[in-house]
């Protein structure tokens, strides 16, 4: 969810302690032995090590060396993308795990609800940790002491992030298969919503969050637009590239020539606010007057991920049919 980025703050004590213990446990004789060993290293062993790793540029524009075929992958954010490639993450953050049906994420360890527990990660001894590009450098440094990290670029689209993961995990075939299955789901959804939607209809999405109203770039809801069922982006909204708060009156202006209005809500107070608005400021919005304004689940639609795209397609026919979606 864009307005509640998981901060993923990490405690440093354990890592620093482990690092200190490792340093103090190395005597002069050990240093000498390791030096001799390095000077007589087997070239075959070095070649094998190089074959097992790859150096890539990640979403933080870092050159990172990571394993080619990691057996244990911790995905702190991109759970759906990793699972979509046929890789079962070893662990993730509870905030993201809770969005899935429990059976879907069975076996994935919860390493903290909003903050990753560093001690748990150390115990898991992962081969690779996938992180978001907005993570602070000090947090990344802590994780690097546990395992190599690869950052996905937060502002890239879910499909772009998934493609990048497919490349480093050598899952290009799985990515191609996922895209085919997604395209099939799009066509099925188009057929399901055909009784409610006409070709060329436009749709506006806004979010109620913390007493404010937000509008996001259309790419956040790509399952509704060009990478999905084909709603048109309302005039003026296509220029939005970053999340911004907008007034109730501006929503009315944007929606003046819009066929559908989707409002992301997350609590009863949001629903009450919507009822007040459609009786006042939003009363003349065509979508409101025509019964084409709908409340939709914030946690699912606003995830800005492959999973969010899939959930939008799953929910849309039910929403348009007037069914409650949670």
From TrEMBL:
Pfam families: Peripla_BP_2 (PF01497). Its main location: membrane. Residues 25-64 are annotated as: Disordered. Keywords: Signal, Transport. Transmembrane segments: none annotated. Residues 26-42 have a biased composition (Low complexity). GO terms for biological process: iron coordination entity transport. Residues 62-324 form the Fe/B12 periplasmic-binding domain. The keyword Signal applies. It comes from the Bacteria. One of its GO terms (cellular component) is outer membrane-bounded periplasmic space. It is a lipid-anchor. The keyword Signal applies. It is found in: Cell membrane. Residues 1-25 form the signal peptide. InterPro entries: ABC_transptr_periplasmic_BD, Bact_iron-sidero_bind. Belongs to the bacterial solute-binding protein 8 family. This is Iron complex transport system substrate-binding protein. It comes from Aureibacillus halotolerans. The lineage of its organism: Bacteria, Bacillati, Bacillota, Bacilli, Bacillales.
